[in-house]
Amino acid sequence: MKLKRQLKILELIRSRDIHTQEDLATALREAGIAVTQATVSRDIKELNLVKLTTAVGGYRYSTAQDVSAAGTDKMRRYFRDSLLALDFTENLLVLKTLPGTAQGVGLTLDQMGWPEIVGTVAGDDTILAVVRTREAVPDVMERIRSLVR
Fold this sequence. Notes:
Layout: H1 2-15, H2 21-30, H3 37-46, E1 50-53, E2 59-62, H4 64-68, H5 71-82, E3 83-89, E4 92-97, H6 102-111, E5 117-122, E6 126-131, H7 137-147
Antiparallel strand pairs: 1-2, 3-4, 4-6, 5-6
């Protein structure tokens, strides 16, 4: 049942914009799959779904693979549309984003494969990126800034 439900979730988010967990639960119920909000929340986490900004400024769920396959132009647009501020201390970068977009931006940053970035931790509107050395921070910050120009 879980596999069937999660496959249906992937089908739904690829075929139409699903903006909230409630939208997803409603769509699943319409497809004949009974779910609770807690189940939908767990499925979103297990499927590594992220929220992306839409062309009209809202948000929709998407898969991590869709983010990585988006290409350079979409990646730049995503950063440009989501990133509000960039700061650092020692070898840690703090990226402030629009609410609901930090996970997608963090995932995109991870998938760039920059060897200077050890990893990221994302919340709702803040990302902590760990840079391997203090000396690499200015270069990483400049590369991130170039994505939003």
